[in-house]
Amino acid sequence: MKVKWQVWNKKFAIYYRRTGTYQVHDEENFARPGDIVVIKPCAKVSPQKAFYVRNIVRQAGRFDYWDEMIKKREDEVRQSMKEELDRLKSENKSLFEKKRNSGEKADLIRERKLKAMTEAFERIKAREREKMENLAFEETR
Length: 141
Prior knowledge:
Elements (H helix, E strand, L loop, with lengths): L1 E8 L4 E8 L1 E3 L10 E6 L7 E10 L5 H28 L1 H6 L3 H39 L1
Parallel strand pairs: 3-5
Antiparallel strand pairs: 1-2, 4-5
Helix pairs in contact: 1-3
C-alpha cells in the first residue's frame, strides 16, 4: 500500500509530497490496486503488517465483472459462428468439391467464414433485442 502526504517546508514556504509504502492487512481481500482507502494501526498481524484497511473511500474500476461478460460474449460468438460455418459447409459441400484450385478453395472458405460471422452476430443482436423488448414489456406491466 502506498501512502501519500504533504509536508510544509518553512524555509521555502511550499508543500512537498512524501510517499511511504506499508504492508496492510485486508482480511476480506476486497481492496484492489488503485483504490483509495483509510488505514488504521493495529496489533501486528505479521512481522511486516501493523495496519489494516478500515474502509474504502473511492474504488478504482472493477474490471473482473466486465472481463467475465466479455469472455462469455466471445464464447457465445465463437459457438454461434461454428454452428453457422458447419451449416454452410453442409449446404455447399458439392460447391466446395467442384473447386480444384487451392486459391479458389481458400477464397470460398474465407467467404463462408465471413458469412458465418455476420449471421452469428445478427442472431446475437436479435436475441438481445428480444431481451430488451421483454424487459420493456415487463416494466410497463
